[in-house]
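Worked Example 4.2. Consider the chain below.
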Amino acid sequence: MNRNVALVLLLFVAAGAALAAVRGIGAPSGDFSFTNETYIIEGRFLLVNRNNVSVHDYVYVALPQNTTFQKSYVLYIKPAPIRYMTDEDGNRYAVTVIDAKPGEKAWIHVKYRVEVSGYVLYADEDRARWPSFDMVKRYTVSTGYWDVYNETLIRLAYQVGYADNPVTTARKLAEWVVGRVAYYVNMGRYGSDHAVVYRYGRYQIVGDCVEVADVYVTLARILGLPARTAYGFLLTSHSQKMWLNMSTLGKEGEGLLSHWGGHMWPQVYVPPWGWIDVDMLDGMQPNFGIFSERHVLFGVEETKYYGTSLTSSCVPSYMTLQYVEYNFRGVAP
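Applying the procedure from the previous section yields the following structure tokens:
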């Protein structure tokens, strides 16, 4: 798998039918209350062949996640996929082919139906357990963006998040992180080592949703709490158009937020409930186990990542992605 392919941490949904639940948060129970929404999502991606030769290009297309709390259906992908593949974190994605002459442009069109169950988890701390050794071993390792050996982050993690109960730890970390956000749109990715800075007499987390998620995951992993990031979209309403023009991306700054809702947030693993979402930027609240139906999940990141979640909707091998557009339309669940 080449580097462009690895950019797409995505998952597979069989055409016209939902998959069985994979990598879900946990089975619904009396511990949860739900808010349901169904979306019809239509997307299109403009590719340009800027090479001086014709190309037979394999293009990797993002598909919405299929989990316990999200059911996804592919209504169509044009051109039709030639196959579906899995990345190193277990996410699945579609592969289609574009033939293009030098300077030629091509569109890919997609349409999905996604049924989302937002939830509130009523986490009884007396029932919470620390995960098994195998879970801890797998999901607390250090990566390029989650440096669990950083001495400053180790000290901060124990100061602000240490507790005997994993629910207490997850909540304390969320409360600290959300109170330290110095938000701005970052076109790259700092990683937790560089996102946490000391200024004006206090520690701050500098960057956007990616940096916030990276810092939370790192602090959780330091304390032995399995953590990973999830990515997709956070809508401001149930019907919304989102778009990106790659040629103007670097100049827009926070203006990007007016027409794009690509998003990343952390998840922690706490038995008996499993993976719990912690999206602190949805309303700037700690939000441990409070997850709105305005999220559409496109994948999870557990081990390593090669870029930003901003532009991973469609990744060509040789052509250039010029434009991305999604239309989300809420319908009756």
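Confidence is low (pLDDT under 50) at residues 1-27. The chain has two domains: 3-119+309-331, 125-229+261-290. Compare this with Example 4.1 before moving on.
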